[in-house]
Design a protein that fits this description.
The protein is α+β, with helices and mostly antiparallel strands. It has 13 helices and 42 strands. β11 and β12 form a beta hairpin.
């Protein structure tokens, strides 16, 4: 009888691992008995204080002049809005929809107006404000609609201290736009650093500071003419900035104390640090200190400090740590700042504010927990507020709404309790850097420096499928045959590989969509830029996809897997990652027009075409196999190979395009060809192949919309096994890193469990024989069908430019020719 090997992570033991062959309670994502929620990376969320429901991804707040009302900007996937809440109870008294809104929210100094950045609408919106009532007043257009491009995007908004002018961050033009609200006209455009994120005026009104999302720099400009007064480097990805005029006690140097009139605090989201900058009377800037908000001394990047708040007495600084679901509390009383502890927040906090009575208000972008969506998405109701023709109410990007954590004032004893909760909520521990808790004798080393019989790693990334869509009909494991779209006839190699090697029936993607999926699967994190921008793109407001290289603000903290490998002296070869294809191949066969990461370019096979659904995956496979033969002749293969075969994405039923079943059969055949070729090569005895999807595209699955197919193929993999251990994308990364002797890139892969339960110490070197296609690889969609018109409107030039839910509906109708069954699913993304 086949044994199931399961991990359990007790709440009180962090990453204590229990391995058993008896049925035990599995680690599963979702709400737990104590009211907390487990996310798929193993992090636990249980926010302090009371929780107030908000709308889609709240990301900014502004307090009215009289302090009685709090305005909140919701800027996520669902239609953006501004909510007006009473400051005492956070009861909603008004809500105004926005065409678009993102980050920028500011009351005028006299309190009569509220301004919001219009994001993709390239404007600033003005609202009259009167005792909680919000009335649309004027729209200051920066770029007319007819001339608007995806680069026309307005983020942060502030006013000059006297209220006479409005300053707005024109993010992708790297400039600050100045608007005269009297005339309603743009009167100046001042250049600044790349991707201006936050604008903050000096109290005297003569200068303003700008954090550059892409430059790692704070810029100071003269307000009258935009002249650069000062700049100071901090660290990658600065976001929020905040000024304090309070002098710390016990400085010990009166002369030095007198020199710095203000302290400017800066968060650096791609690090675990914030920075304190002295600002003198003459506007001189000097870096005073860096403050590490990590929970332990060796913790890799991943806390993601993104926002700041000061207590009314300016003795406490609160630092929002988005990826830790926590706020750090920094004591500013002495000359040397000190992290006093942490407060647990909701999921992915984005902003904070301390009220006059000492309450800490934290905005949580994703709320307090994950949510089930057992009735949807239903593609037959026509009442969608976002997309016509489908019901998006339970679409994976729409179902998650934000919240506010309202935390009463707390003393040191309570902060100590909060800190212990935050620490317990995190599966990361420093000792995991030295010991990944893999038992002795396993081919997966427990330390990066340990020896392993596996020398070569091949990483294959595919596109957008849930487990049940592909393997639901396999007849074993936790599978639901009623939800299969691509059955064994379309996917004979997927089925054969799962049967011959290991069937993973509890594997999850960390991501919601391809935008964050390609980052989670290559960088072990979806950085701040990706998290904040993709909902806008996927909602069709900013119609641009820049999440796979090429955007300087989107770079992750430690780079990508290939950067990690190069730094570790590991040889690499790239087939299709971060490339842009030429319209057609050159006469010499080159297919690649651009490699979006310069570090990757020298190691890229230029004949291997990147994402292009009109180019067959079997042709891609043959290009790799040809080079594999060259490696054999040389007697050496790169230690790390990464490859994209993405035609399982399909083109829906777009007229004239490859039909969905043929597209998947092509992908399946390519996977079989690659595995067979490697298994019959001289490198097979020392090779491991890892295969996973970048995301699950919100497809049907009876367990969860993020459960997805994954394969590990190697002579050292257990044959014919079912492994129900809870794994995710960063588990794959951690396993590959340990084999290759590489350090973890972030706290997420450092804390993820290596997939050692799938491995055995004695190799079985029998080669794999690929299954031949059982469907035509060339069947085309008809020019006219029930869904051809909907598919024809879609853009398949890049992954995930279309609505996931609608494409899933089209595929079901085209393949099943019936109404989709109601799946049982829940939402989670990290």
């Amino acid at each position: 009888m086949l044994k199931k090997w399961l991990f359990v992570i007790p709440a009180t033991l962090g990453l204590a691992l229990i391995v058993t062959s008896q049925p035990v309670k599995q680690l599963v994502a979702g709400v737990q008995e104590d009211g907390s929620a487990i996310l798929p990376n193993g992090w636990r969320v249980k926010a302090a204080g009371s929780q107030i429901a908000l709308d889609t991804f709240p990301m900014a707040s502004a307090l009215s002049k009289n302090g009685r009302f709090l305005a909140v900007l919701n800027g996520g996937y669902k239609p953006p809005s501004i909510e007006i809440l009473t400051a005492d109870t956070l009861t909603q008294v008004a809500k105004v929809p926005l065409e678009d809104g993102w980050l920028g929210l500011q009351f005028s100094p006299d309190g009569k107006f509220l301004y919001a950045g219009g994001a993709s609408r390239a404007n600033v919106q003005e609202f009259a404000f009167d005792n909680g009532k919000l009335t649309p007043s004027r729209t200051f257009t920066i770029v007319p609609e007819a001339d608007r491009k995806y680069t026309d995007f307005i983020g942060d908004v502030t006013t000059s201290p006297d209220g006479h002018l409005i300053y707005a961050a024109d993010v992708f033009h790297n400039q600050i736009v100045v608007i005269n609200p009297q005339s309603g006209r743009v009167i100046e455009k001042f250049k600044t650093g790349r991707r201006p994120y936050r604008i903050l005026f000096h109290p005297d009104g003569e200068t303003y500071f700008v954090s550059s999302w892409a430059d790692g720099t704070i810029y100071q400009h003269r307000a009258s003419n935009g002249e650069l007064v000062n700049r100071i480097g901090v660290a990658p990805h600065p976001t929020d900035i905040l000024l304090s005029n309070r002098k710390p006690e016990n400085t010990g140097d009166a002369d030095d104390d007198a020199k710095w009139k203000f302290r400017l605090f800066v968060t650096a989201a791609n690090t675990n640090q914030i920075f304190s900058i002295g600002v003198s009377e003459s506007k001189e800037l000097h870096l005073l200190e860096s403050i590490n908000v990590a929970m332990s001394p060796r913790q890799p990047a991943g806390m993601t400090p993104t926002a700041l708040a000061l207590s009314p007495d300016q003795k406490k600084l609160y630092v929002v740590c988005s990826d830790a679901n926590a706020a750090a509390v920094v004591d500013l009383n002495d000359s040397k700042s000190r992290v006093a502890g942490f407060v647990p927040t909701g999921w992915y906090p984005t902003a904070a504010r301390v009220m006059a009575d000492g309450r800490l208000i934290v905005l949580n972008g994703r709320g307090s927990r994950s949510y089930p969506n057992p009735k949807g998405p239903n593609p037959f109701r026509k009442n969608s507020p976002v997309h016509s023709g489908i019901d998006s109410i339970q679409y994976v990007a729409a179902i998650q709404v934000g919240s506010a954590s309202v935390i009463p004032p707390f003393d040191d004893d309570q902060l100590d309790k909060y800190s212990k909760e935050v620490y317990a909520n995190s599966p990361y521990r420093d000792d995991l850097l030295d010991d990944a808790r893999v038992p002795a004798g396993n081919p997966i080393p427990t330390r990066p420096a340990d020896k392993t019989p596996i020398e070569n790693v091949i990483f294959i990334l595919k596109e957008n499928r849930t487990y049940d869509q592909v393997l639901g009909g396999i007849g074993k494991g936790n599978s639901d045959a009623s939800l299969v779209l691509f059955d064994e006839k379309a996917a004979p190699n997927h089925y054969k590989l799962a049967r011959e090697f290991v069937l993973f029936d509890n594997f999850y993607v960390n991501a919601d969509v391809s935008a964050d999926g390609h980052n989670w699967s290559t960088a072990a994190i979806a950085p701040d830029y990706v998290q904040k921008m993709w909902p806008n793109s996927y909602a069709g407001r900013r119609k641009h996809y820049d999440y796979e290289g090429g955007e300087p603000a989107a770079l992750p903290p430690a780079g990508y897997l290939w950067n990690n490998a190069l730094q570790g002296g590991v040889t690499i070869r790239n087939y299709g990652f971060w490339t842009a294809a030429k319209p057609k191949a050159d006469p010499d066969g080159d297919q690649v027009a651009l490699v979006k990461d310069p570090a990757l370019a020298p190691y890229t096979n230029m004949k291997y075409r990147g994402f292009d659904l009109d180019f067959k995956d079997v042709d891609r496979a043959q290009i790799f196999i040809s080079e594999l033969h060259e490696f054999e002749q040389k007697g050496e293969m790169p230690k790390l190979i990464f490859m994209r075969i993405g035609n399982d994405h399909t083109s829906g039923t777009a007229p004239g395009k490859i039909a969905p079943l043929s597209s998947f059969a092509d992908n399946d055949a390519a996977l079989g060809m690659i595995v067979e070729a490697v298994s019959k090569s001289k490198f097979w005895p020392k090779t491991a192949i890892f295969v996973m999807e970048d995301d699950a595209q919100n497809g049907a699955d009876h367990v969860d919309s993020h459960r997805s197919p994954a394969f590990v193929i190697s002579p050292y993999v257990r044959r014919g096994a079912i492994d129900s251990t809870f794994y995710n994308q960063t588990s794959v990364l951690r396993t590959m890193e340990l084999i290759l002797g590489l350090r973890p890139m972030t706290q997420f892969d450092a804390a993820s469990r290596p997939m050692w339960t799938a491995f055995q110490p004695v190799p079985d070197t029998r080669p794999y024989t690929a299954e031949k296609p059982r469907r035509s690889l060339d069947e085309r969609n008809p020019q006219q069908s029930g869904t051809s018109e909907r598919s024809a409107k879609m853009d398949f030039s890049e992954a995930d430019l279309n609505d996931d839910d609608e494409l899933n509906d089209i595929l079901w109708r085209a393949i099943k020719r019936s109404e989709p069954p109601v799946p049982v699913r829940s939402f989670f993304g990290h």
